[in-house]
Specification:
The structure is a single chain. This protein has about 500 residues and is α/β, with parallel strands linked by helices. It folds into two domains: about 10-110 and about 215-395, P-loop containing nucleotide triphosphate hydrolases (Rossmann fold, 3-Layer(aba) Sandwich); about 115-200. The protein contains 18 helices and 14 strands. The protein is globular and about 85 Å long. The chain starts with 7 loop residues before the first strand and ends with a helix. InterPro entries: HerA_C, P-loop_NTPase, T4SS_component. This is Helicase HerA-like C-terminal domain-containing protein. It comes from Ancylobacter novellus (strain ATCC 8093 / DSM 506 / JCM 20403 / CCM 1077 / IAM 12100 / NBRC 12443 / NCIMB 10456).
Length: about 500
């Protein structure tokens, strides 16, 4: 089934066929509507149209429902009826699909290096305050100046330990670097690891070109689906990944102006997560990328429940609009309905605000860019059904698709080359002083296991009191951090003991 014509994707039918013009598809778009109103089916229909036109597509699959696009449609009764209503024949079709998964469970692993993510996105990902973000920037700066690669989270942890160990020296060059602030960042990093982010950071990092493949047999653009059902349990990780993806596209792709069709199109479901609690610096970055990335031939389509979820500065960049039903039960809902209605070019035949609340499942108000980029008048439209399967596929079928994937031998195995963690450990080993052999006095008792390891807690306290300490030996970065924490604790205990002793002496 396809009502596409040259240079246009058939979206549905109002009083006339409604099309999305490929030449204007890089002007971005928005699909909104309440849960259960048909947004996912609309997304699939438009994604299939892009694929048939040879345009690669990336989409986040929040519930797994989009996975059916990899299999031919089944001609369900409602699909056949819908085709009759809009005047097209139903013809099942299947599309080339690559499955991806940040956790590597339902698709090929998706990875990025810590350096690629950068301090701005990492700071948001770890929910750092301004001071902590400043220290994180210092960490990245030092790593860059000293040629230390930040690839995975153990590299970042090693750099944080190095900065904490040398905080006094670094402060004069980079400003105040407090070990307490470094410790707070390390705790946030631990939370991030517990959410599974350690699987995302590393190598081989995702190559943007692998999201821009065209199937050599059919000429269809490949549809890359990101399994996001589990990822939604870590919404900050999901949002940070999408923003990183946009940034990488912006940085890597060349300027092409307005091509006859996009080089790649992205659908970002649950788009409100990109903007929730985002600092102004990050919102400014998103607005800049969305505004400028179209000249690189990239179309970005946000999918969310409420148009108010998207900041006005970004909303103004989204020219192609699909509005499913909204329910005006609360004052905020009523405000959303009015906002959605006001963004459309008015149609004298429609009361737009009223129609938004009356739309049935599979219906939508549509306004697409036409001519020189002006929006068409809003029309009440019955959306065309997909040609691929509607609904999720079985795990067995997904596994078969993954095994046949053109990238199956590229990303499935993790690489761990020498980077900051290994290089700092090597430096520590090379600069550590050699231990002098200890000759026990005649008749002296053999050292216990605790004393051989550097003494117990009482030894640490006495060492703090009398200025002695056990030899450091060759320690790893983790051992150095542990030693530093122990030293600080010892100093605090020592001061408390001295205050009690001296205070008691004064009172006597």
């Amino acid at each position: 089934m396809s009502g596409d014509i040259d240079g246009k994707i058939f979206v549905g039918k109002s009083e006339k066929p409604e099309y999305l013009t490929l030449k204007l598809a890089n002007r971005h778009g928005l699909a909104t509507g309440a849960t259960g109103t048909g947004k996912t089916v609309t997304l699939q229909t438009i994604a299939e149209g892009f694929s048939r036109s040879g345009v690669p597509v990336f989409a986040a699959d929040i519930k797994g429902d989009l996975s059916g696009i990899a299999m031919p449609g089944e001609g369900q009764d409602w699909i056949v009826k819908r085709c009759e209503e809009i005047g097209v024949d139903y013809v099942p079709d299947e599309f080339p699909v690559i499955f991806w998964d940040l956790f590597g469970e339902q698709g090929h692993p998706v990875r990025a290096t810590v350096s690629e993510m950068g301090p701005l996105l990492l700071a948001r990902l770890m929910d750092l305050n301004e001071v902590q973000e400043g220290v994180l920037n210092v960490v990245f700066r030092i790593a860059d100046e000293q040629g230390l690669l930040l690839l995975d989270l153990k590299d970042l942890r090693a750099m944080l330990a190095f900065v904490a160990e040398n905080a006094a020296k670094l402060t004069t060059t980079y400003g105040n670097v407090s070990p307490a602030t470094v410790g707070a960042i390390q705790r946030s990093l631990l939370v991030l690891e517990n959410q599974g982010a350690d699987k995302f950071f590393g190598e081989p990092a995702l190559k943007i070109t692998d999201l821009m493949r065209v199937d050599p047999r059919s000429g269809y653009g490949t549809i890359s689906l990101l399994a996001a059902d589990k990822l939604m349990g870590s919404p900050r990780l999901y949002a940070s990944f999408l923003l990183w993806l946009l940034s990488e596209l912006f940085e890597e792709l060349p300027e092409v102006g307005d091509p006859d069709k996009p080089k790649v199109v992205f659908f970002f479901d649950e788009a409100h997560l990109l903007f929730d609690e985002a600092p102004k610096a990050l919102l400014d970055k998103i607005e800049q990328v969305v505004r400028l990335i179209r000249s690189k031939g990239v179309g970005v389509y946000f999918v969310t429940q409420n148009p108010l979820d998207v900041p006005e500065s970004v909303l103004a960049q989204l020219g192609n609009r699909v509005q499913h039903a909204l329910r005006a039960f609360t004052p905020r809902d009523q405000k959303a309905v009015k906002a959605a209605a006001d963004t459309f070019r008015p149609n004298p035949k429609l009361n737009t605000a009223q129609v938004i609340t009356e739309l049935g499942k599979g219906e939508a108000l549509i306004s697409m860019l036409e001519g020189n980029g002006t929006p068409s008048m809003v029309e009440r439209t019955l959306i065309a059904p997909p040609a691929g399967r509607v609904g999720p596929i079985t795990p067995e079928l997904r596994k078969v698709a993954i095994e046949r994937s053109p990238v199956r031998n590229i990303y499935d195995e993790t690489l761990d080359r020498e980077s900051a963690s290994e290089m700092l450990a090597k430096r520590a080993a090379e600069t550590a002083p050699a231990e002098a052999p200890v000759t026990p006095s005649p008749g002296a008792p053999a050292p216990t296991e605790a004393s051989a390891a550097g003494g117990g807690f009482l030894d640490s306290v006495l060492g703090g009191l009398f200025g002695t300490r056990a030899p450091r030996g060759r320690m790893t970065i983790g051992e150095q951090v542990t030693r530093q924490v122990t030293r600080e604790l010892t100093n605090q205990v020592t001061k408390a003991i001295l205050r009690n002793v001296l205070g008691g002496a004064r009172r006597r």
